[in-house]
Amino acid sequence: MAKLYSKKALATTKMLPKKETVQFLLNYSKALNIVKIGNKNFEIIAN
After folding, report:
1. Based on the number of CB atoms within 10 Å of its own CB, is 22 exposed (0-12), middle (13-18) or buried (19 or more)?
2. Mean pLDDT across the stretch 27-32?
3. Mean pLDDT of all residues belonging to the chain
4. HSE-CB of 3 using CA atoms within 13 angstroms
5. What does pTM read for this prediction?
6. What is the Cα 39 distance to its own chain's centre?
7. Helix (H, G, I), strand (E, B) or coil at 39
């Protein structure tokens, strides 16, 4: 077990999202509406 923790960590590769993924998340966040009534939150998707 000691050998596993003593090794140097491998260099992490930079992960970039696809353009379609970013566009999907932006569109989703634009359509999402959160309404607070009393002490409860309601999430409404306007599609």
Report:
1. exposed
2. 91
3. 84
4. 0
5. 0.52
6. 26
7. coil
CB 21 within 8 A of CB 27: no
pLDDT in tens, 32-46: 999 999 999 999 988
Looking at this protein, which amino acid is placed at residue 40? K
Give the whole-angstrom CA distance, residue 44 versus residue 28: 11
- Token pair in block for residue 17: 């999202």
Q: CB under 8 Å to 34, separation ≥6 — which residues?
A: 41, 42, 43, 44
Average pLDDT of the segment spanning 22-32: 92
Q: What 3 state SS string does 5-29 have?
A: HHCCCCCCCCCCCCHHHHHHHHHHH
Which candidate, 30, 1, 37, places its Cα nearest to that of 45? 30
